[in-house]
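=== Structural record ===
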Amino acid sequence: MPTFPNAVYLFVDAEYRRWDTSSTDHHPNDFNVSVFDECVRPVVEAGQARIVAASHLISPSLFIEPAVGHTAGHAMLRLDSGGRRAYFTGDVFHHPAQVSRPELHLPGCDDLATAIATRWALLRRAHEEDALLFPAHFSAPHYGHLEMDGDEFVFVPG
C-alpha cells in the first residue's frame, strides 16, 4: 500500500526496469530481494506511478539527472534555489570515505568503474559550484559541502 495516497511517485525508466522482476532488464541480487514487489509494485498498481526519463524536469528548480554506476538507471536530484545548488545523491556515495577516496568499493554497484567515474564527476562539479550535498547514507546532519585537503575532497557536514 502506498505510504502517501495522494502522491505521484516518479520512477526513472531504466531503474524501474532494473528492479522490475517481470522485466527482461531485471538485475537480481542477494540484497533487497523483494524490494520492488513490496515497495514499488503496490504504487504502480495503485495508479500513482509515473515512469520518467533519466533526465527529467520536475519543476523549474528541481531536476532528476542520471548518476549511473550503482545501477544502470541510478539518478539523483539537483535543486537550484536562491542562487545555490544542492545535490541529493542517493546511492552515489555510501560512506563519507568515498568522498576522499571515490574508488572505495562497497558491495552493490552494478558497474563499479562507472560508479567511480560518476563519483569523481559529481565531486568536481559540486566543489566547483560550492553546492550542498545530501548523501542518502551519511549520518546526521545528513548534508554538507566539500572542501579540499591537498588533492583530496573532504565532506564537511552541516
